[in-house]
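Appendix C: a fully annotated inverse folding record. The material below is reproduced so that readers can follow the format used throughout the book. The structure is listed first as tokens, followed by the designed sequence.
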């Protein structure tokens, strides 16, 4: 049931090298693919979804050689791209009925049951007769998931689905993903750290087309435990601290700046140890990948 991605590389015709030898092993359950904008997440998602060929590498899902047998992969795939269009004048029920037909559910009774079940699953049953043109962003995303689930996929890819959703809709959407069967590989790509923290059993951070780290979120956090320190400083001093310490994040609070810095040992100078979270790891790993900041010796 595992998806194995091995040494995938892609350079676009304009010379942008979007993926450098990406290798990932993705078991069933929710997998978070986290990275900043431009990291290569969509390029990787489209490659796995057989929408664009890589220059080299291989992908296997169960017994399918994905790049050689794209039709066999597509039969088990649900894909929610970053942007998708819906006919605004059609009600959700009719749209889902249409996609279920495309997925081969030809028996009308069976299709009616499937459509009703999907609408309930994504909590759109009560608004099923309304035109989707009037739906909110979150409702459209939930309908997108229902469409992706219409073929009972074993591999579900959702590309940045929470961008632009308000916190309530974001949670609702993520919980929906978390409830999808345990035997399905679900890949959630996102640049929002909180999307990954609680729901994903496995994750990877990618940056500039490379895997920076992969594993269980808790294990990844363990790696920086005891090395993240916090101090609140006047806002005007923020830059001076940046010069002196490996600052991984800053947050404004009542005119001051709360700094998180990475250091192997206690930097003293009023810093206190903090229990790291995924955001600390994320910013530390990105800073490290960018060459980090060399701390100035005191
Ligand atoms: P992400 O999804 O993490 O934001 P993308 O995969 O969209 O990253 O983009 C990775 C890099 O590849 C970016 O520099 C982007 O500008 C570039 N890129 C993406 N798609 C294309 C394309 N079709 N042609 C040329 N460059 C592209």
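Designed amino acids, in order:
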């Amino acid at each position: 049931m595992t998806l194995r991605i091995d040494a995938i590389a892609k350079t676009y015709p304009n010379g942008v090298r979007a993926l450098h030898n990406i290798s990932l092993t993705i078991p069933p359950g929710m997998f978070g693919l986290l990275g900043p904008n431009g990291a290569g997440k969509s390029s990787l998602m489209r490659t796995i979804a057989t929408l664009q060929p890589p220059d080299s590498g291989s992908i296997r899902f169960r017994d399918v050689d994905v790049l050689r047998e794209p039709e066999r992969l597509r039969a088990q795939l649900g894909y929610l791209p970053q942007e998708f269009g819906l006919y605004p004048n059609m009600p959700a029920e009719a749209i889902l009925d249409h996609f279920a037909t495309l997925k081969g559910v030809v028996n009308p009774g069976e299709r009616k049951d499937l459509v009703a079940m999907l609408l309930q699953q994504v909590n759109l049953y009560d608004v099923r007769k309304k035109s989707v043109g009037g739906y909110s962003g979150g409702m459209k995303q939930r309908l997108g998931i229902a469409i992706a689930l219409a073929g009972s996929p074993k591999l579900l890819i959702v590309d940045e689905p929470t961008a632009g959703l308000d916190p309530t809709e974001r949670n609702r959407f993520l919980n929906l993903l978390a409830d999808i069967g345990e035997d399905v590989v679900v890949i959630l790509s996102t640049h929002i750290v909180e999307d990954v923290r609680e729901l994903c059993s496995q994750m990877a951070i990618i940056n500039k087309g490379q895997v920076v780290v992969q594993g269980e979120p808790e294990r990844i956090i363990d790696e920086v435990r005891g090395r993240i320190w916090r101090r609140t400083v006047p806002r005007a001093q923020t830059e001076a601290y940046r010069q002196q310490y490996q600052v991984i994040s800053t947050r404004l609070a009542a005119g001051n700046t709360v700094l998180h810095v990475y250091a192997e040992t206690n930097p003293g100078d009023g810093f206190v140890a903090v229990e790291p979270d995924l955001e600390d790891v994320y910013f530390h790993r990105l800073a490290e990948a960018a060459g980090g900041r060399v701390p100035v010796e005191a």
